[in-house]
Amino acid sequence: MTTRPALLVRNVSHSFGATRALEDVSLTVPRGGFTALLGVNGAGKTTLFNLVTRLYANRSGAIEVAGHDLRRQPTQALRRLGVVFQSRALDADLTVQQNLMYHAALHGIARAEARPRVAEVLAQVDLDDRAGARASALSGGQVRRAEIARALIHAPELLLLDEATVGLDVKSRAEVLALTRRLIAEHQVSALWATHILDEIDPSDGLVILHRGRILFTGTAGEAATAAGGDLTRAFLDLTGVQA
Amino acid sequence: MSGWTTAFRGIAWRETLRFVNQRGRFLAALVRPLVWLFIFAAGFRAVLGLSITPPYQTYVLYEVYVTPGLCAMIQLFNGMQSSLTMVYDRETGAMRTLLVSPFPRWFLLGSKLVAGVIVSLLQVYAFLLIAWVWGIHPPPAGLVAVLPALVLSGLMLGAMGLFLSSAIRQLENFAGVMNFVIFPMFFASSALYPLWRMRESSVLLYDICRFNPFTHAVELIRFALYLQVNWLSLGVVTGCLALFFGGAVLMYDPARGLGIRRKGG
């Protein structure tokens, strides 16, 4: 049981009517690692995330979160999942603290237990002084940090981050990325980081390249770059056929 | 406390906070039936004669007749308000927080439904208190006896709102719900006039009113307020509750993918 991957996706396909969004996708996110899911807009990253989070039902293949099959054991699988969605998902009417308390309740964490945990994660994302602020009053970077804190509240084993830096300025983007890397190390959680920005990927990161619903590469970013003379951008362009 | 209770309390707390934060919503929910009671009913009292019909054992003022209908109207609007917030939450993305909870969808939707009914009960009892001051005096025990009827009718109308929210793709479409659901349901019912009056005008309309679930919600409340049970209405409201809630759970099932908007990436 200790060697089970944080996420196992096996032969998953998904269509919207006649449009094939994912075609026989298989990937593994190892425990304790940072894996980047790289793909251009429309590659199928969000569709894959919606399947893993069970916002869409998976009809083919299998998805396991920390060894729990999403179809047969959805409760156990979703308990082990923390999610930061591509678009903002904080409740604008609530304060930051109320948002986190609400999320904790939705994971069955009682108020007495949730309160100190909320304070702890807000301090970790450097938002403790904004706990009482309405979510609608936060900057883009602060919203993202609050959403990362929210995703960690129930101590998940796998963190899914869907283009978490989209819409942020360069400084906020770097801060959010650095924060995520620090937190996944501190919380010993695995992360699947969906992005289309190559600068966000380190050579030691796991890398999955998704293009037009198909997996084109799995390995480390360093391995992909080495195959293209040390240039990850070149490797990505060669694999996908996308014009620079 | 079990995780299930915690999750339910969290959802109920969220709904209450939303209600408290939107004070205008409480005011609007209260003012709407009061306008009907104070102005509309006063005008119609002179025009509309009412015969003695169950559960009333004597002639009643028009204000007395419409009071149960206005209670149901509060719940109808509250149910639609819940539906509106579901669509709003889906548009803003906040709904995904709810839907990725590890608890089953039926439980999450059911908790949201019950929380909405609790809010509607506060509104109805505030209205009944003002109506009492205005001179509408049902039997005092009726104010207690009506509670289960209000819970059941609130659940039925809330479930209908949930079901509708799964089919409404955009907030802008909500005006259609007002025009094609709320107004026809309210006016084609026994809320404002007894059905025998309707039959005098049109048999077809009378039949429509008889099959309108809102009519049965009104009659369930009316009879309970006067310490009686309208068994037919109880059956219809319970059946419609099961139908609407079952439909909502089905429509929000991940297999149908209707809980969220399709978005590529």
Automatic annotation (TrEMBL), chain A:
InterPro entries registered for this protein in UniProt: AAA+_ATPase, ABC_transporter-like_ATP-bd, ABC_transporter_ATP-binding, ABC_transprt_ATP-bd_su_PQQ, P-loop_NTPase
GO molecular function: ATP binding; ATP hydrolysis activity
Presence of the UniProt keyword Isomerase in the record: no
Source species, domain of life: Bacteria
UniProt xrefs under SMART domains: AAA
Tagged with keyword Nucleotidyltransferase: no
Keywords: ATP-binding, Nodulation, Nucleotide-binding, Transport
Gene3D superfamilies (UniProt xref): P-loop containing nucleotide triphosphate hydrolases (3.40.50.300)
Domain ABC transporter: 7-237
Ranges that cross the membrane: none
Family recorded in the similarity comment: Belongs to the ABC transporter superfamily.
PANTHER family, per the entry: ABC TRANSPORTER ATP-BINDING PROTEIN, ABC TRANSPORTER ATP-BINDING PROTEIN NATA
Protein name: ABC transporter ATP-binding protein
Organism: Paracoccus salipaludis
Record lineage: Bacteria, Pseudomonadati, Pseudomonadota, Alphaproteobacteria, Rhodobacterales
From TrEMBL, chain B:
Record keywords, A-Z: Cell membrane, Membrane, Transmembrane, Transmembrane helix, Transport
Localization terms from the record: Cell inner membrane; Membrane
Residue runs in coiled coils: none
Primary localisation category: membrane
Domain ABC transmembrane type-2: 24-255
Annotated transmembrane regions: 26-47, 59-77, 113-135, 141-164, 176-196, 231-252
Membrane topology summary: Multi-pass membrane protein
Gene Ontology MF annotations: ABC-type transporter activity
Family: Belongs to the ABC-2 integral membrane protein family.
NCBIfam families reported for this sequence: phenyl_ABC_PedC
Protein name (record): Transport permease protein
Protein source organism: Paracoccus salipaludis
